[in-house]
Amino acid sequence: MAVGIPLLILLVLAIPVAVLLVMYVLVPVFKGIGWFIRHIFSFIFGEISDVLRLVGAIVTGLVLVPMTIVNVIIGRWSASAHYGRAVKSECKNGCLCIYRMAIGRPAKLLCLSALTDGLEKRLPEVMAGAPTSDTPSKRTGQFEGYKILGSLAGGGSGGKLYVAEPDARKLASFARQGQADVVQVVIKSFSLRDGSSLPQIVRESRALEAAKKLGLVLEHEMGSERFYYVMRYVPGESLGLYTQKLHASSEETGLDDRAIGLVLGVGADLLRTLQQYHRGGLWHKDVKPDNIIIHDERAHLVDFGLITPMRSAMTLTTHGTEYFRDPEMVRLALKGVKVHEVDGAKFDIYASGAVIFSMIENSFPAHGGLSQLTRRCPEALRWIVRRAMTDYDKRYNSAAEMLADLETVLLADEPFKVVPAGLPSMRGRAVESQDDAKQSEDFAAGFAAAVAGSPVPPPVPPVSPEPLVTPAPQTPATPVAAGQRGKPKLRVSDWWTGRYEVVDSEPPFPPPPPPPPHEEAQAEAQDGVYVYASVVSAKDAIGIVSRSAKEQLASARKRVKARRAQAHDRMSQHRIHRRDSFSSGINGGVVVAIVLFFGVVGILGFALLVPAFSRYDQTRVRIVQSPPDAPEALANAETLTIDSDQILDQVDRAKAQVQEAMRKVDELARQKQESYASALKLEKNARMLIQSDLNPPLDEKVGAYLKELYQTLRTAGVEVYGGPFSPTNLDEETESILVETLASLEHARAQMPLDTEKTSQVLTNWIADHKDDPGLDLVLWISPSLKGKPGELPMLTLFGSLNDADMKVIRMILGD
Amino acid sequence: MLNSMTTGFIARLRGNDEAAWYELWETFGPVVRAQLSKWGRGRIGVETVRDLSQETLAALSNSIERYDPTRGARFSTWLLAIAKHVLGDEMDRRMALKRGSNKKKAEFDETWMMASPSVGVDDAYEAAVFRAKVEAAIKLVEKDADFMDFSIYRMRVLDGRNGKSVADAVGVSEPTVSRRLAKVRVMLRGRLNQVIATYSFTPDEMDEAQRNGLELNPSKADDALFDEAIAEIYHQQLELRRADEASARS
Lengths: 816, 250
Description:
- The structure holds 2 protein chains of 2 kinds.
- Chain A is 50% helix and 12% strand.
- By secondary structure, chain A is an alpha+beta fold.
- In chain A, the strands form 7 sheets. A 5-stranded antiparallel β-sheet of chain A has the order 1-2-3-5-4. In chain A, strands 18-17-19-20 form a 4-stranded mixed β-sheet, with helices on both faces.
- In chain A, α1 runs antiparallel to α2 (77-109), α8 (257-279) runs antiparallel to α12 (399-411) and α15 crosses α19.
- Chain A starts with a helix and ends with a helix.
- Chain B folds into 2 domains: 4-113, Rna Polymerase Sigma Factor, Chain: A; 128-239, no CATH class.
- At the A-B interface, α9 and α11 of A face α2, α5, α6, α7 and α11 of B.
């Protein structure tokens, strides 16, 4: 009995212990064993299935290859292409099987899947996002006035993106449009010959005029087979990458305070830009992280492929990007609603909310407006995102309203303490922004109507209480509305009749130092061009006494000097901005790849070739002549030994003789040319400006011809500027004068054909205006030949005049 | 047994109303995609899954004409049958392509329309379809309700915050929070009734809400349970959407 009780207690205790042992030890152990067996078997079966697939791919490929060849032989090109694609697919499958057998499955077996993640996931992503060729194909052709620096990865629009540097003429032309700080540009090109389709071109070109008016597009050209437009290049990285970096440097729970501040800043920049679009009557339609570039912690919206005038009469389309496109827009589009029947700005606001969501969560809002922000985020910001992404009728009415809320959080000392009740939209301040939005809407309606060809006349824009885009320090690339600079500010006094009054006017360019004297005030500037007529009328109006010719000349010189200084500043500014330029050259990654490649090749080469060459490591070569089928004769074979140094000496002597002969021929040619050039000499030196319409790169023959022409003209006493062989050692001031003069010449000619009397008259007058400053006598216009065949000499058209004898010499030189 | 709402919706589908199709796609797309991915794992990629889910809905429109409500199949069963048929068709097409021959289009197996214990679907799928219906109802309420009311409901029920913090955040009193909460709850019940009626063919499906803790004609004591069930379904649906988005990005 005494033994029985402890035994019973022991038994009672042993039962739960045994149960616990089974639950927490045996079950996991058996589970682990089961997992291990499954793991091993899955590897074995995987390997077997891959082997079978590989064999299948090889067999199928072997069958398909002869079929492809046969179809090529009998000329069935489409069928051969079809079979060729099948062969390619089988090769790809085979390679994948080999990869899985050799690397993928063994790594998985050893629980090293993380090692192969890069190859299986990141590599295909990187390859898919790689830019296209660095230069446009021959089918696409060159872009006149731009030097292509490299290319960018294209999006889903079907266009090709090139980064380019405008030449001096283009820069001067952009400066005239009010876009003085352009350094590099992005050219988006669509070519029918290069695979783009007509609908793509039509879609992209729809709102370009409007985008150009807003200064978003610098230039566009539509040809019979090619269409391209030019935008400002914004260096930096996409918001998607930027967000990943922010999250990588923050904790798992979400972004830290500094990163939250950056998110708010990016959101505010985005909304300011959208506000500008909406006021201009446009709707971006494709706001997403990939279309936002971050540079110096400021956000820049790019890609105007889907930009749409809000008053367009077209039917709404479902274009856009999933997760950043409002589902309501898709619903309306499927119902066949017209663009002007909806408020496009609200769809941009939804996308802005989705962008901010993606920055906070580091993922896309998969659940639309019901998506949940789970990571660390101020309550007020969460509210703003929800309000932006809620139902179409209930979200913010305008970007301005959302911006006001966002700025409240951004400017708060402690964003996490701001509650939704403290936001302007909750305190009734939204009424102000709604009024503002209403005014903007009226303006937008008129603007877009003008753009979309609607009969509704555009109303006068309302006075903006603040600049459209708050200029940020160190953000030269922030878009500024073109054509607004220098225009008078208007205030509408009667909306019904459209009467307005001028409030004040900003000078088109900063006033030249020192402040202009009283006579300068007479010359009112309009769009940067001094108009003589306005000088006279202003003078009459204020009754100022006329000045002498000498004073006027001095004044004119002062103005010219000031403009030169401005041009010089602009050029210097360009040079400063080049620090952030696009570079398609060698980066760190490329260097590492090249070094690795050549290192491996070098080591292999050394290992393989050195032993082979070591047999020839002697200066004397022994040649043995012997009957191949008589080994016994080898011992008595005749041996011929040649001294290789002797051969090299002979080669050197022959080379020296050839060089001497060539030198004599060159000397004779130079003497002959000098005697010809001395006959072609001007009595009085002249200055010639050359303007060339030839597209780079020049044909070899044409280049040689023009080079000789430049040389002959210079020998004859003509100072030649401009064109493909313009002097390159000019000082900065001369260079800026040359650029300004060429731009002025281009402007004077406009689109007139060269061979008309009118053009001749206009350009002769232009030369007369520039005879004293900068002292031009002649203009030579080089244009492509009419047939445009490669190697054909260009057409030369001369304007201006000298004395008879000198003109005769010039004409002889030009071959006329 | 089709009710007037169901027949109205089916009439819109039959009339090729694209908005109705989009609605169907938005509501059941993730569920169908999840099911197709489960079946075709290792054999079909993400893009094919997306294509097949679209084809499933297209096939649904064609078979609506032939649907016989007297056989008693559930909506979820019907949807699944079509998805399976579409996937099988795709597999056959691939095999036929490999053989280099043309494939005759398969006939749709309409035995799935019959309620039969041998032709069942798994519970996880049934639950996913039901959750999709609840999600559709929440979306409709978001559209109908005042933004402030819905935000309060969202913060209080879906985000699980207490009444006081919600009141402080939006600058109203706690009783106001309760009042607005009740308002949205009533709307949600109404919309749930409507959605379930639209996408349900059998009495069994009609009672599904009650079985999942969503009493549609409740006493006051049921409100807390109702909110809890809605929050749980919402979070499960969030997970499904996240997985769907992650697979689309991979």
